[in-house]
Amino acid sequence: MNRAISYNKSTIQEFRKQLQVRRKALPVLMRKETALRQVIADRKPVLKQLQKEYQAEWKRLQGYENIWNDLPSVLRVKAIITETHNIAGTRIERLKKVDYEALQLNPLYEPAWMPAALEALQNLIELKLQLQYRQKELDTLEQARKKTTQKVNLYEKVQIPEYEEGIRKVKRFLEDKENIATAAKKIAKNRKMSRDES
User: Fold this and answer.
1) 180 phi, psi to nearest 5 deg
2) Architecture of 18-187 per CATH?
């Protein structure tokens, strides 16, 4: 324990209180850590699958680069709508929906393939955004798991043993002090009795 200890009964009470708080919190933190590990393990394959889908769609649409360069303002993202979820006490933001700006297409002047091309581009954009949000979600969960593991280790390996040792030290000190006081009283009593006898 890094701080100076006052060797009295109130210190023992304070240490017991802190020890009890940590002992109660430890199982909760351990469950949270386990839950986060499980969620992360479940999310990783989903992210890999999404990456494969995005790469496949990107390769499929690479031949159409010239079309997108010729028509740069044909599609605009108006709003990205997200929703917040709570996973094991960690707030996660997920992509819910992508709104696109209303396009002014005239079917008489636009090529027949334009609606299919726009749909493919929207799909690619949504896959990319989904991938970004899933990666961010995984990173957030990993960070929360890391912090929780650190706290579990801090409580389990450092603070709980320190408080237990602190309680033992203070108790031992108080017992020694009491024993010394009792011995001093006996010595004083014996001296008094021997003076009275002489």
Assistant:
1) -65, -40
2) Orthogonal Bundle (1.10)
